[in-house]
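Q: I have 227 residues here and want to know how they pack in 3D. Can you give me a structure?
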Amino acid sequence: MSASDKKSQSADPNAVTSSASGLSESTESAPIPRSTFISVLTAGLSFLLITIPAAIGGLFFLDPILRKKTSAKGGSGAEGTSASVARKDDAGFIRLDITTDTIPVDGTPVAVTVRDDLDDAWNRFPDVPVGSIWLRRNPDGAIVAFNSVCPHLGCSVNYRRGENDFFCPCHTSAFALDGKKTNEIPPRDMDSLAVAVRKEGQDDPAGTELWVRFENFRRTIAEKIPL
């Protein structure tokens, strides 16, 4: 080695070390700053904490709109009725759990519970009792229905076999078997309801299915006004 080379090397003793250090640093990835990692993690958690409750709340709010309101099918329907026939039709007629064969030909009234689906803003209660009616067969064979609620103050009207009439035990309102009031206590006659005889959900005088358009009416007044 010449004297000039030795002099140059001694003049810059860190040259070799700096070159090796630079090569080593170039082969390593720059570390992610800790503050950046924490910021990303915090943002992700915040997004989840906001999005999940918002999504659940949105589904809860839209549930009444998204829920398809279909009538109960099959199950407890009248014997011989196809399971594909809905419990309630678009006109409001509800299929009863009894058939025409169970209505006595001598005109004796039969008490029947009416069942339907109840809906409020957020919930559905399927196939629950919504009221009761009296059914009887007229001398001409036609089947008629009366709401069992007394039009006076809303008590339940009973059938008195001994007197062969309808009677409200709360205020002694009395009605004949055709629903006509027999004293001055009730403001009007018993509330009659529309009845349909059907087969497989279609009107048919020879059918055995009984359908009733169940309604409740305002009490204490002479007019028959649906609620």
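Q: Anything worth noting?
A: DSSP finds three helices and ten strands in the chain. The first strand starts at residue 93 and ends at 99.
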